[in-house]
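Lab notebook page, bench 4
Experiment: in silico fold of construct C2
Operator: M.H.
Input chain length: 495 residues
Purpose: comparison with the prior construct
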Amino acid sequence: MTELEQPFEATEPVEMEGEEPEPVDVQRTAKAVPHFTPAERAARGRAARQDVPRGAHAEFEPASSRSDPVALLEEQAQTRVPELVPIRYGRMLVSPFTFFRGGAYLMAADLAHGPRTGLIAQLCGDAHLSNFGGFAAPDRTIVLDINDFDETLPGPFEWDVKRLAASFAVAGRDRGFDEKTRRRAVMTTVREYREAMAGFAAMRNMDLWYSRVEVADILARFASAITPEQRKRAEKNLAKTQTKDSLRAFAKLTEIVDGDPRIRSQPPVLVPIEELLPPEMAEQFSELAHNVLRRYRRTLPRDRRKLLERFRMVHVARKVVGVGSVGTRAWILLMLGRDGEDPLFLQMKEAQTSVLEPFLGKSEFAQHGQRVVEGQRLMQAASDIMLGWDRVTGIDGVERDFYIRQLWDAKGSALIELMEPNVFEIYGKICGDALARAHARSGDAIAISAYLGKAEVFDRAMAEFAELYADQNERDYAALQEAVASGRVHAELGV
């Protein structure tokens, strides 16, 4: 990756509290950051059209050497908790859309055989429409942004756009929308991305960095385009999101045992540590979790370390989350502050190699928890104040990377399964705008905007691609169905 491809990248090591920083040889490590004029950056974007015409993105043809999709899923399963893998397959089998949600690795392998513009941004890596949602910014305002970064890595900006466009085609089929409705939704999504990118390209750097979308502003913006019933549903969902915090998690996920709060057992989705391991090993694991907290806090800014130190850990449980993530190790830690009415739930989630790395190269971060956190901080306009990472040697002796965040911090998702065509299209605008902002923060908005241009060439190409890839997704879904029916893999349904 050249300096020209990443003109704004500059990273610094995290200084650990209580550790002497290594001496830095400025003459050896200092690296000049190139600064190009807006005209030069725009010229670079237009030049990329010569190598990769915008219309070329419409094409999708499975490679002759395309891997068996089930084999790719089985490859991922090798590093996951064996007893949880059937749950992952079961969740993917609910519909072609849930299969798509769990199939980021399959799509990355397909995109690797397609055209690449060379215009680099920080990618979400799994930018489907369900990975956008609301959450509380540090000032407690509910904002909307990308909210999943397990696969984040720098790469060609169009990979995220293709993942998003295809997700609208797949979800539209799941909702029973006809092809005309699906195409309109994809076109609207990509047009919003293109036009938003043009707006970000014209912004001053600081204005771009401070830019964010508040959910209340979204409701105001689209008030005239939705029915009173649709608005009422959206407001109800927002109100529910605002109450989804550690206090609510405490009420829902815990019970009092011998006078002390404990995470309640809801197997296989939520299992306390003492039900997973014999007493001696459970105690050993709890001590391991304490050590994780001591190290993880060093990755937080000093003020947030002080806040974390006001809480003590009282219980640990394993939690199954998501679709694609099922089988990776995810733990929730119940913390208490001043008293039993002052809880904090942290989630410690395993960060494995990004599905993009086999095709785009290794991350600059050797620690995958840090890869996730640094990518999230770069792409999001506001991030969880408790976001950090750690590398852990488990009681099985295996070293694994994790990132840590709040379990519930007013996190909410759009109700895709209830969306009518007009709301589906509006949601496309919201996602397109959020993705453009993330790419503009991390990449060269001027170059990307110049490549996209003012006409709908790229938008139409994405609409064509989305339907072609939705067809491929259905073939892959059928392959998993067949693998389960033949006994090749085992799926647990309804979990």
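Observations: The radius of gyration is 23 Å. The first helix runs from residue 26 to 29.
Next step: discuss at group meeting.
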